[in-house]
Each structure stands twice: as structure tokens, then as C-alpha cells.
Prior knowledge:
Layout: H1 3-13, H2 18-37, H3 43-49, H4 52-66, H5 70-93, H6 104-122, H7 127-147, H8 153-165, H9 171-189, E1 193-198, E2 201-206, H10 215-219, H11 230-254
Antiparallel strand pairs: 1-2
Helix pairs in contact: 2-3, 2-4, 2-11, 4-6, 4-8, 5-6, 5-11, 6-7, 6-8, 7-8, 8-9
Amino acid sequence: MSFQKVKSSTSRCFDISTAALHIIAMLFMLMDHLWATLLPAQEWLTCVGRIAFPIFAFMSVEGYFHTHNFKKYLLRMLVFAVISEIPFDLMYGGTWFYPVHQNVIWTFILGLLGIHIMETVRKKKKTPVFVLTAILVTIAGGLLGTLTMVDYYGIGVLTVFIFYFFRGRKWWCLLGQIVALYWVNVELLGGLMYPVRLFGMEFELCQQGLALLALVPIWLYRGRQGYHSKPFQYFCYAFYPVHMLILVLILGFVNR
């Protein structure tokens, strides 16, 4: 076997496909929601669950650049955002109508609309106008995400923008993802702090900072689609509302 073939075979072993990323993100999300409903004592579940959202945010950006029809892509997300709202409200608010917190698909919709505006301006190749538009859209996206109380609020929308601004595999893109994700998750979002002792040194680890571990599977993704079919595509969309509804039903049965 030639060196080139060995190199190619080795790289494929560490090459995560789109399908694999979706499955990984869904599993981590399920773990987080198990902690939020049935297993609140198992705090490690929500720690691992921090990895899910950045992967979904990354995949929504990739979806924008790979879709053949943005309007259909956005419409599909709108439909599932509406379908997911009642299961989300039941899980987080314990009621059919919980207006103070909206499901995460709305977060991605706001992010995608912002990206579409910026891309429309960028394609006109007017750099100063694009920079100004990017600044205004970023501010507006963060404010809208907070005011409309979508999941992860404005920080969630900013996370989508991070993967748009630092899209690519150049060193500065990867460094930008690390710095920006650290900033929004640890400095802005924050959360529980865990005391850690390592090599004789004591320091605190922010639970939300574990979201940076999402960069490992994201960086192992190199654009390969992997398994794809319409049933699998809709399974990935349907998993979000269906698994929340199942968890709510099980929780209701247990609490009888």
C-alpha cells in the first residue's frame, strides 16, 4: 500500500461526516434533557450536554451554505420550530404555553436570517458596507435573541454568527472559534463553577466552558456528508420535539 493511500485511510478514520455530527449532537442533547427531567441528580449529564448546542449551531451554518434553496430550508425550520414549541414548553415550563422561553430552533432561525442578510451584502463585494452590516446584524441578532427569549438568548444567536465569521480550516479561523466561544460561554453566559485540582494547582472550571469541547468533533468534520436520505433528514428534525414529548410523558407517569 502506498504512503498516499495510508495517509488517506488514516485521515478518513478521523473524518466525521455530517450524519455522524447530527447523531453526536442529538445524543448529547438527550443527555442534557434527561438531566432536566428524569435524572436531575446526575449533574454530569448536563455537563456533557453543554457540547450539543455549538455542534447544532455549526451545522445550521453549514446547512445554509450547502442548501440549494434557502427559502425551503428556512421554511422547514419554521415548521419544526412551531411543532417543537409545545413539547418544549411542557418540558421547561410544565405547561402548554410558556411564553418566557422559546425552543432552540428559533435561535437558529434568527442566526440564519442574520447570515442571509450579511451574505447578500457580501456578494456585492463592497467591503465597508459588509463590515458595517455585519456589526449591525450582530448587535441586532444578540438583542433580538434576548428580547424574544429564545433558547440561549442572544448568546445563542452570537454562537451561530461565530461559526459564520470563522468558517473554514485556516489557523486563524480555528483560533477565532476558540477565543469567541470562550468569550460568549464563559465571560458572557457563565454558569456553575467547579473547583478543580490539577498538578498541585487549584482553579475553577466553568460548566458552560465545557461547550468548547464541541470543537473537537467540529474540527474533525471536513465537509463529508456521509449517510443521507429524506427519512434520515426528517428523523433528525423530528427527534427534537419527539424526544421532549416522550420525556414529558415519562415524567408525568413517574410523578403520578
